[in-house]
Amino acid sequence: MTDLVDYQLNDGVATITIANGKANALSHDVFKELNEALDRAEKDEAVVILTGQPGIFSAGYDLKEMQKGPSEASALVTVGSRLTRRLAAFPLPVIGACSGHAIAKGAFIMLSVDHRIGVEGSFKLGLNEVAIGMTMHHAGIEIARHRLAPAHFYRSVINAEIYDPDGAVEAGFLDEVVAPSELMSRANELAQQFRKLNMRAHRETKVKAKSEYLDLLDRCIQQDSEHLGLAG
To answer: Percentage of the chain with pLDDT > 70?
Structure first.
């Protein structure tokens, strides 16, 4: 790993940390290194903790890359959708340790892992695409529909409502909230609990439970690519 993504293996737990500037922006390079880190976790047969810097998990896609042009922006969205699809079917448990703000693609990542822990504080979590003039892509809509509480799906996707940490639990972006000082200890506590699972049963049950959803995501990613002119 480079300075963008850090990988630490300890006692059967792989902690993957995104560290890309003030916004923890998600660029092609970050996605490449995240995938490499996930490859290592699979090889190490490790439970994963995915986290960010103190105060920020991620504010979403790297705006410098998104603003290069429509095709460049579309390519980045496609790569991001493939990462969230990978997380949704990852063969080992993945814990999201949301270290602060999680906006747009940062929130979609939280919607794609197995268990999400947030931190107390004046942090913002949610999907702001409509608020900033972006029509939500098909994959994003279905990721949100799959995990958000029904009463909050419309509020989040259509109205771009942004939540504080407690509201994010109610909406479905997070499962629990702890003090910032307790985030990693709680994540590691859960990781050790998950290590006791039968990993074959975990993997097969996850894929079986999500079979229709994963097929839908594949179709949506393809549909988004075709609409954006990226189909090969």
So the answer is: 97
